[in-house]
Structure formats: C-alpha cells, structure tokens
C-alpha cells in the first residue's frame, strides 16, 4: 500500500520549473534514496511531502490524504511525517530533553511522565542519554543532528524525510548520524525518503534509488541494479564522477 504518491506533480518558482510531471509511489515500509546533482529538485520533492513546498498542479497523496486539497489539514500531515533538515533547528534556550518533549506536549497532548519516558528512551536510542540536560550550545553538530532525529521520532510519525542530514557536519561526525538513520530505517513499518550524497550509505539502506536531474525523475530502480548498471546515461555520468571521487 502506498504511503506517498505523486501524480503528474508540477512545481514552479516563478518561471523556473522545479518539478516536472513527477509520477512516483513509495510504499509503506520502504526506504527510498533520492540522488542527483545540486539543483535537480531532490530537496523540493522531499519538502513537498509535508507541505513545506506547495505544488502548482497534480496530486500528492500522503497516507491517504491529498496534500494539494485545500480541505486537507496540513498539520495532520506533518504529525504523520517527520522531517530532519540539513541544519538542526533546535531551540537554543531549551535543553536537549525539552527539545524532544515540547512537540508531543503541545501537539499530541501527551502525559508529562509518558512524554519524558519516551524522550529519554529516544535519547538512549541515538546514544545521547547522558546529554539530556545539556543545552544545544554544549553539544557537537553531530550530536545536535541526532537530537533532531529523536525529536522527529517523538511525534511517532509514519514516515520520515531526511534532507541531506549530514551535509552540514564535519566528516568525523557523519558516521554516527548515518548509524542512527540506518537504525530508524530498519524499523519494519517506517517509510523513509532520504536525500543524500553519501553513496555508500545509500547502497546500505535503500530499497530503491531515484535519480533526478533538471526537475525530472530519470531513473527509479532497485538499489543493487542502479549502482551496478544504471540504464540512464545521465545517471551513469553522475555515478562515475561521484564514485571516482
């Protein structure tokens, strides 16, 4: 059953055609990686799934709801769809634990004891239980990104979006963050859409790889097939440059 479905989706920024006639289905429980050159439309596609980017035409169905329908409650969509950005966007004036607890308290009306227990369990999962009472300024960028992942998971989403989650990190911090994402995507009922330049990671976690360029999906294939023998010439050129470096 589909968790996310794009049907003839078009997206413009003024005259710039950012997404061109996108048709795409992502099933519940799938982990799909989006790759392609900068400016190809990857982040725009991912950000449209929870309404951070609005589409001009077509249908975008998320967990059975048409996000383009004016009657759709976008906040309900965002409750189902967690998102982790390039930059962590933690509340600087709240400690790590409170950063995780605030949304479930306000949006889900979660009981305070249950909320704290859930937040501590998530911090333990991402290896940061000992940082619960640190302020964001007292932890590293990699740790902050792991807190941001825990914060998204605290809302118990059905789907997770990762928009180049390691691109702002120092190289030695990347593996810890990728390890947490790998754990999240291994949960059998979690649907994940990941925009990344980390090709080795993509090969490890993805069921499918989608290659985009110039606002179009040029290739959509099983991971092993894509990396061994992409059928699209532009995808072959891209891979040869990425892997040789």
TrEMBL record:
<dbReference type="InterPro" id="IPR027417">
    <property type="entry name" value="P-loop_NTPase"/>
</dbReference>
<dbReference type="GO" id="GO:0016887">
    <property type="term" value="F:ATP hydrolysis activity"/>
</dbReference>
<dbReference type="InterPro" id="IPR030679">
    <property type="entry name" value="ABC_ATPase_HisP-typ"/>
</dbReference>
<keyword id="KW-0547">Nucleotide-binding</keyword>
<keyword id="KW-0813">Transport</keyword>
<feature type="domain" description="ABC transporter">
    <location>
        <begin position="4"/>
        <end position="239"/>
    </location>
</feature>
<dbReference type="InterPro" id="IPR003593">
    <property type="entry name" value="AAA+_ATPase"/>
</dbReference>
<protein>
    <submittedName>
        <fullName>Phosphate ABC transporter ATP-binding protein</fullName>
    </submittedName>
</protein>
<dbReference type="GO" id="GO:0015424">
    <property type="term" value="F:ABC-type amino acid transporter activity"/>
</dbReference>
<dbReference type="InterPro" id="IPR050086">
    <property type="entry name" value="MetN_ABC_transporter-like"/>
</dbReference>
<keyword id="KW-0067">ATP-binding</keyword>
<dbReference type="GO" id="GO:0005524">
    <property type="term" value="F:ATP binding"/>
</dbReference>
<dbReference type="InterPro" id="IPR017871">
    <property type="entry name" value="ABC_transporter-like_CS"/>
</dbReference>
<comment type="similarity">
    <text>Belongs to the ABC transporter superfamily.</text>
</comment>
<dbReference type="InterPro" id="IPR003439">
    <property type="entry name" value="ABC_transporter-like_ATP-bd"/>
</dbReference>
<dbReference type="Pfam" id="PF00005">
    <property type="entry name" value="ABC_tran"/>
</dbReference>
């Amino acid at each position: 059953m589909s968790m996310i479905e794009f049907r003839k989706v078009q997206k413009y920024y003024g005259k710039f055609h950012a997404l061109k006639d996108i048709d795409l289905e992502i099933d519940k429980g799938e982990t799909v990686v989006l790759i392609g050159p900068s400016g190809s439309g990857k982040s725009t596609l991912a950000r449209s799934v929870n309404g951070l980017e609005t589409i001009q035409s077509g249908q975008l169905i998320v967990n059975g709801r048409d996000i383009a329908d004016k009657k759709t409650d976008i906040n309900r969509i965002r409750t189902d769809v967690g998102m982790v950005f390039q930059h962590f966007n933690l509340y600087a004036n709240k400690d790590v634990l409170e950063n995780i607890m605030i949304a479930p308290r306000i949006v889900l009306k979660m009981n305070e004891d249950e909320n704290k227990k859930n937040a501590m369990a998530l911090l333990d999962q991402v290896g940061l239980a000992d940082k619960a009472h640190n302020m964001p300024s007292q932890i590293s960028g990699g740790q902050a990104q792991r807190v941001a992942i825990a914060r998204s998971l605290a809302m118990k989403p059905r789907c997770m979006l990762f928009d180049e989650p390691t691109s702002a990190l120092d190289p030695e911090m990347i593996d810890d963050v990728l390890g947490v994402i790998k754990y999240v995507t291994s949960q059998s009922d979690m649907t994940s859409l990941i925009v990344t330049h980390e090709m080795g990671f993509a090969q490890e976690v993805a069921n499918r790889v989608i290659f985009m360029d110039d606002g179009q999906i040029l290739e959509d294939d099983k991971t092993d097939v894509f990396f061994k023998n992409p059928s699209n010439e532009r995808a072959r050129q891209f891979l040869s440059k990425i892997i040789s470096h």
